């Protein structure tokens, strides 16, 4: 997992951490750019493995749309040269960009002010970006919505929640790169009582959703078959709490220091 550790007001150190073994590694800044460590909710990072190189890498998209890769084997950074035409497919207007790793590719969910939605693919072998699919025509768009992308049952899924009516819409991308609408459900906090969006955190194996309701400080499960919710309310410490998107990872004994044994902590 990639974690950030602040060392001043504007920049963070990047930490590679294995939660299973508790080992960690502070990433080198060799060949990096300052924007790789700049504090911003719009920077996106995704870790992946390349079997051809036997290397773990991190894809990093900065707010400027500049793209970098970090190699664990060489412990160094490299900027990926991309054309200006790639930039509109990477930058997210209004919301932080969501991403998912699937079939050795990284998929980004992009939105422009909640009015247009499309998926961009990063091929980890060729290091090229491709605009894969547009889903805007199937969504009741609006600025005040929240979206997320997930991989479940070997398919890419896209989820949208609406701030005003509590509606949650789920779509699945088919083999032909077209989207099929699977579900539309309303939370029991719909209508005037909703008073804020729900943040989809995790698409569960049974087809239900674990979502976060920031306004009411609670987590709850959306049962898409019965359209009801099981609440798990909690009191936020220090009069406030922020729950970011859940980071999913595969448990492994691989050490972040596997290529540099002398760096064991």
Automatic annotation (TrEMBL):
Task: Report the Pfam families cross-referenced here.
Answer: FBA_3
The UniProt record lists the F-box associated beta-propeller type domain at 12-143
User: What domain of life does the UniProt record list for this protein's source?
Assistant: Eukaryota
Tell me which PANTHER family the record gives. BNACNNG10540D PROTEIN, F-BOX PROTEIN CPR30-LIKE
- Which protein is depicted? F-box associated beta-propeller type 3 domain-containing protein
From which source organism is this entry? Tagetes erecta (African marigold)
